[in-house]
Design a protein that fits this description.
The structure is a single chain. The protein has 196 residues and is α+β, with helices and mostly antiparallel strands. The protein is built from five helices and five strands; from the N terminus they run ββαβββαααα. A five-stranded mixed β-sheet has the order 2-1-5-3-4, with helices on both faces. β1 and β2 form a beta hairpin. The radius of gyration is 19 Å and the shape is globular. The N and C termini lie far apart (61 Å).
């Protein structure tokens, strides 16, 4: 027996039939500017940005870890800011610029954070690495722009200048990204290398 799929049941409010019959659509075309290229897909409104990237656009560098926004494995940059893609409805990101780990390299050269991770051997199994790298790129931009953190409150920043990034500050700013293998010391070293 086939499982019941409410989105395929013509009597269900989740039916894929359109507004011409008085029901709300549950699928919409979404255009994302991913790694510099416009990509359009028609997506169920419940599809997360993570699933859109992986399942609909074939970009599997971004990983699904906890699917609850707690581990950071799915971190990407949305309009230049780091975000947990497992929490973002893809339809709400229509028109956004999304950068995944696949889009950080330029002209065949790794991004400096990617190079530092390789140089410092800042990974073990590698599952969290794409999210760690995207988060580090976003975090470095936040620190450069003078965003405060728990370790360095706004009052300690001078005239909105960049935050100093020592090991404690990096650990605090990267605390939303978990590494179950425990590669944290080398991750912090790699980020500190780029911050200098």
């Amino acid at each position: 027996m086939e499982p019941h799929r409410p989105d395929e049941d013509p009597e269900s409010p989740l039916s894929r039939r359109g507004p011409e019959d008085g029901r709300l659509p549950v699928r919409s075309p979404v255009t994302l500017h991913v790694n510099g290229a416009a990509m359009t897909a028609t997506l169920d409104h419940r599809t997360t940005l993570l699933d859109a990237l992986r399942e609909h656009l074939g970009l599997t560098g971004t990983k699904k870890g906890c699917d609850h926004g707690q581990c950071g494995a799915c971190t990407v940059l949305v309009d230049g800011r780091r975000a947990n893609s497992c929490l973002l409805p893809a339809v709400a990101q229509d028109g956004a610029r999304v950068t995944t780990v696949e889009g950080l390299a330029e002209d065949g050269r790794l991004h400096p954070v990617q190079e530092a991770f390789v140089d410092r051997d800042a990974l073990q199994c590698g599952y969290c690495t794409p999210g760690q790298i995207c988060s580090a790129v976003g975090m470095l931009a936040e620190a450069e722009a003078g965003f405060p953190s728990h370790a360095t409150p706004a009052a300690a920043l001078t005239e909105g200048g960049p935050a100093a990034l020592g090991p404690e500050e990096i650990r605090e700013r990267m605390s939303g990204n978990l590494c179950r293998c425990g590669a944290y010391p080398r991750i912090v070293d790699a980020i500190e290398d780029v911050a200098r």
